[in-house]
Amino acid sequence: MSVVDNVVERHPLQRMASPSRQASFVLHLLGILSFSLSFKFLVDNPNPANESYGWHFQYLTIIGLALAYMTFVVGVLADITSSRSLFLVKNALLFCSAPLETLISILYWSLRIIDKRLVLPEWGEMDPVADIGFHAIPSLLLATDMLFFSPPWTLGTLPAMGISVVIAFAYWFWIEACYQQNGWYPYPIFELATTSQRITLFLGSAALMTLSASLLSFVYHRVNGSGLERPGNIKPKRT
User: Fold this and answer.
1) Is 181:49 a contact under the CB 8 Å cutoff?
2) Statement: residue 15 has pLDDT above 80
3) Could you give the count of Cα atoms lying within 13 Å of 221 in the half-sphere of its Cβ?
4) Is the pLDDT of residue 2 over 80?
5) What are the tens digits of pLDDT across the range 117-165?
6) pLDDT for 7 beyond 90
7) Are 66 and 57 in contact (CB under 8 A)?
8) What pLDDT sits at residue 121?
9) 80-84: long-range contacts (C-beta < 8 A, 24 or more apart)?
10) Which ranges does the record mark as transmembrane (predicted)?
11) Phi/psi of residue 73, each to 5°?
């Protein structure tokens, strides 16, 4: 098999064998469609957040959704062009977006089961289909991408923890800036918590995000095995 034929069958930065590029393209296209419909829902169903400082990007859910959108847009471009650089960018974005969306799904559904008023304001109720689109589908699609269409992750626990802490506290500073302008927090649980409790909440979220990254990596190796090449060293097979 020639090098060209090998790349057509499976891009060297994709895990799954033929027809990985076609299946990857379909997955990324479905994700873009789902995420677009979720953003359309925000525009078609306005609430106080639409007119507030920070718009809906006050919500970690929407930040995660935007990052997932970026990941899949780059992914579909990589599928079309078979660009090694674009696949590397997609995989780098995926390392952040997959654990973040896993964290969002875990936190949202756990708190909603305890008391939905912790995560949804009085005007924040939405239909079940939209709810799943915001809080379940992104994590499922990103996990599928990671497990079947990406090379093994090589970032260790400490770097993953560092990224998680940076994201958690960057989000905290952001919502505090929004609070100064709007006079209310995006999630009711923040209204109920003291400053020290919010710090504890963000630290706990960072730890949970690190755990999510480790869990996704563990599942990857359980599904695909270990001993795979590092993404930076993967080369097309020679004949």
Assistant:
1) no
2) no
3) 13
4) no
5) 999 988 878 889 999 999 999 999 999 998 888 877 655 567 778 888 8
6) no
7) yes
8) 87
9) 80/25, 82/7, 82/8, 82/11, 82/21, 84/11, 84/12, 84/13
10) 25-43, 55-80, 92-109, 155-175, 199-220
11) -65, -45
Can you list the pairs that 80-88 forms with residues at least 24 positions away whose Cβ atoms lie under 8 Å? 80/25, 82/7, 82/8, 82/11, 82/21, 84/11, 84/12, 84/13, 87/11, 87/13, 87/14, 88/13, 88/231
Q: Residue 170: inside a domain, yes or no?
A: yes
pTM, 2 dp: 0.85
**Residue type present at position 83:** S
Tokens standing for 38? 């979720």
Q: How many domains does the structure of the chain reveal?
A: 1
Q: Is residue 238 part of a domain?
A: no
Range of the structural domain that residue 98 is part of: 3-233
Residue 239 lies in a domain: no
> In the predicted model, is pLDDT for residue 41 greater than 60?
yes
Rounded CA separation 90/84 (Å): 10
Retrieve residue 201's tokens.
């909440």
Calpha distance 199→207 (Å, rounded): 12
At 5 the pLDDT is 44
- Write the DSSP assignment of 151-212 as a string of letters: PPP---HHHHHHHHHHHHHHHHHHHHHHHHHHSS-SSHHHHHS-HHHHHHHHHHHHHHHHHH
Residue 194 phi/psi, 5-degree rounding, is -80, 175
